[in-house]
Write a structure and sequence with these properties.
GO molecular function, one term: ATP binding
Strand content: 15-25%
Keywords: ATP-binding, Membrane, Nucleotide-binding, Transmembrane, Transmembrane helix
Number of helices: 16
Shape: elongated
Pfam family, one: PAS_9
Structural class: alpha+beta
InterPro entries: HATPase_C_sf, HATPase_dom, His_kinase_dom, HisKA_7TM, PAS, PAS-like_dom_sf, Sig_transdc_His_kin-like_C
Protein name: ATP-binding protein
Helix content: 40-55%
Amino acid sequence: MYLGVIPSIANSYVLWGDRRKPGVIWFILSMATGGVWAFLFATFTLVSDPGLTLALANFFWVMIPTAAVTMFLLAYEFVFKHNVSRRVAVASFLPILVLFVLSWFNPDNLVYTPEYHVGPNGYLHAPDLGGPLKIFVTKIYGYLLVFLAAGMFVGEALRTNGTHRRQTLYLLVIFSMLVLSTVVKVAELVPVYFDLTSVVYSFSGVFFAFSISKNGFMKFVPVAREQTFQEVSDAIFVINPEGNVVDVNDAAGQLFGAGIIGQQIDVVLSEHVTSTEGAAETLEFRRNDETRFFSVQTSTIAYGRGLEGEIMVLSDITALKKRENELDLLKQILSRVFRHNIRNDLNVISGYAQIIEDASSGDVAEWAERINDRSTKIVKQAEKAGKIESVFSYDETVQRSLREDIEKAREEYQVTPPATVSFDIDDVEVEVHPRFDLAVLELIDNALTHHHGSEPADIVVSTELTDTSVTLVVEDNGPGLPSVEVSVLKAQEETDLQHGSGIGLWLVHWIVARSNGELTTEVTDSGTKIEITLPRLPQNQTTSEAESVAAQ
């Protein structure tokens, strides 16, 4: 029985370095409990002094429920992969502490019955049950925790695979050996001075310790996840709190070399990275006259008792970066050529056309007028292209009153009589694109520009409220939005066979989309109705006021 102390010490020594991982500290305490259990039983059996025997027995009886508690806490952390709280751990040992304290006084035979005594041969005679407190703690409470732990292990073995399942089965084998040894003891198949359970408890951890040293402990990541970690194309680093690389996947090893484990991550990156962009979120990597770009994502990991680290993922964005540079260059070319050179040339053409129109008559004057109109239209399209560029230059939204944007648009637009534009806007707070006023301005301009008929243009801009949203409505009495314009917006693309007449509605569409809104159109016999629905901010709304202003 004294030899049972040896594997307990060996297991504790082997696992001490992993004590912060979930479950490890409880397995160490469980194995230590088995060793102390065997040591105490052997000692009070050999000692002939009744007083010393009874004193050692008081320590012995608390080892049995202590073993049950440590096995239960081990099972909990092994299965659920996180530590039990300190409060739960203390509460689990509290009944054992009460048993230990009262065992020295035994008030009203609460712990031991009168049959509990030391015989002339120095052996401790203890009835199978004992006092009510001893029955509750060592029998009911202890066995309940053992059964709960066994149930958790069985469930874990059924739903897992690989190394984790093997270690779960090892723990179930330990449970089975303990149950079998207890049956042997109860059946009195071994001498009264020999406790088979404590010895089996100590030695059963030997082959489990072998599995721990070979495969690691608490290796709860399934094989599929391990394979994914290795085969993913992004370079992944696992970094400890000191900043050292403790693990990498194959992609990181191929990119930076196999000898980077153990090195500081800053050193690893500095040896290869030539520049960074945007607070080190993008890395430029050069090797063998090849330049590659990587985006960097870092997340914190917490595992076990005080174990923290980081996972760094480098994603290759070389193709995306190349595409981004090409689009930026294209934007510069189009901005310079289309918005400046062509616009300036068209202004010249428009000026000469006006001169020809004024100096001629008949067909020549009519042709010159058409040239002037088309040139002016293209110049306006170029100006709208500049507005679109300004729309895409903002990545964030702003919170403000919807009426503020409407007022800004109303001040910028001049209405020529007899056309009218009236406003009936509720004062509500919304979160929109910083240039939301351009969308309102474009809708008004579009309705006025494309109006024709005997009646003057009449445009009404109003709002409709619900508890969660506000809808901006722009209605006109014009001929109606062409069906091709509606189809292009719904399809979200333009083709050779189906395309809009301009880019104004695209400007509106992009602003609304970047405001997390919804754009809908409705064409009726009386004109066109365009609605922009925006979510209202979840805050106290200001008093709704209606304002009607006619601009002429």
